[in-house]
Amino acid sequence: MKRIIIAFPREQNCNGVVSIFKKIGINDIQICDSGIKVLELVEGSTKGLIICSYRLKDMFSSKLINQIPEGYSMLMLVANPSLCESIDSRISVLTLPINKGNFLATINMLLNKNKFKKSLSTEENLIIQKAKDLLIKERNFTEQQAHRYLQVNSMNNGRKMIETSKRILEGSDNNEEIRNCN
Prior knowledge:
One of its GO terms (molecular function) is RNA binding. The protein is α/β, with parallel strands linked by helices and 182 residues long.
């Protein structure tokens, strides 16, 4: 089962969400009040769900999404939806007060979203990693920047990430694909 973390600056807010999970039989839940604690809890795991408020004690939740593993989903519960107009697209948002049915449907969707996702072969992962390494070398990107670059360009060009990676590697002799992959 995926790890479930509930993070709110006040414990009473966590307890309300925990009670909903307990009513449906999910008892293995971690609660915390800060972004640092969330990062400690996700360390060593690859998949899970973080349910949080817009702001934790030490950081905005929208900054936290870039520091957690990609296998994690985030559900932000907010009173004012206008706060969330420019947040990361990987964050799902529900407006308070929450409808229990909508909340449970959203949780179910987020917990199962990667269930049917096709996993890449070792060879495909190696090709993507080589393309990232090339971008790191040629453009002085970090690993995260190279990954994001591949994602964005794949979406913009209607290609899968593996196809974009292959094109970058094929054009690596003259760096043409790297320049044209904008």
